[in-house]
Amino acid sequence: MTGMPDPTPQQPTGTPDGTDTRPAWPQDLSVWATAQSTGPVQRRGRYVPQSVKHPARMLPAIAAHAVRSYTQPGDLVLDPMCGIGTTIVEAIHAHRDAIGVEYESRWSDIADLNITHAHRHGATGRGSVIRGDATRLTALLPAALQGQVSLVVTSPPYGPTVHGLVRPGIDGVTKSDNRYGDDKGNLAYRNSLTALVDGFTDILRGCHTLLRPGGVVVVTARPWRKRGELVDLPSAVLAAGTAAGFTPLERCVALLAAVRGGRLIARPSFFQLQQVRKARSSGVPMHLIAHEDVLVLGKLEKSASSAEPKCSRCGPGCPDGSSCHADTGVHGNSGRRTS
After folding, report:
1. Is residue 161 within 8 Å of residue 227, measured between CB atoms?
2. Helix (H, G, I), strand (E, B) or coil at 51
3. Cα first-last separation, the chain
4. Are the beta carbons of 81 and 108 closer than 8 angstroms?
5. What is the Cα–Cα distance from 12 to 63, expressed in whole angstroms?
6. What confidence score (pLDDT) does residue 55 get?
7. What is the pLDDT of residue 303?
């Protein structure tokens, strides 16, 4: 990874006529160097200032990398829990079309502002946001979109204890903007991991209906600790994807740390530092989180004559078998391109 160019979303990914100018760094790495610059630097000038209020913003470079790796210009991208619209903004800047669903009106309003802002700054793709409950995805979106989506990029919600902004005050540090909203119907407030995964499985089932054969779902997730116990959300996401009818294709790593001279430079939040320091002071050898798991799932096309998974570009005899998702131009677990 040493010497890899900075894969921030500010780098051009296409021309106004729709020609895709792909980035110069290797596309076949399972480690995505997506935090060479900080989140605020990645968003500066690209997103409206209100965006910082959301408690769980995806790094723009993660969404941008997924869009570049698994779609072509003109493809349709979906984020069923779009928040402030990061996936949509990065997709329309890359000459793709994008649609998002968001439960909270506060965030969908900001997503609308970010889409307008992107268009004012040269984004050529079409983008829109629908407010509603993504567990009822196919009821929210037009039936004409079923089978038309090429890529889903999203992330399940985490507990509010791992989010928020901090500011020093007279009485110590104060925490703010650490909640998705007040509506307890929000998936983020389900009272157990099982309930959260059940809701997320319903969302993925809707995504399965909307995806075209060969389409891909990219989910970012990370484990967290609850009362000292590790909650393995990435494995739960894989189980949800399988239950929704998807086939696991790849498991990658999106760095939340910068790579400098072959070393990782962590970019922890205040809460991560506080948690790690408390754990270490009590003798628990906890480490800072420096990455998110990237789980890549595929909707495979079946051969008409058998149950054998069929690559829609290469046919049933594709050497990559169930690992191929060639409709996106990518083959195998390496994520290498065919064109």
Report:
1. no
2. helix
3. 23
4. no
5. 14
6. 77
7. 53
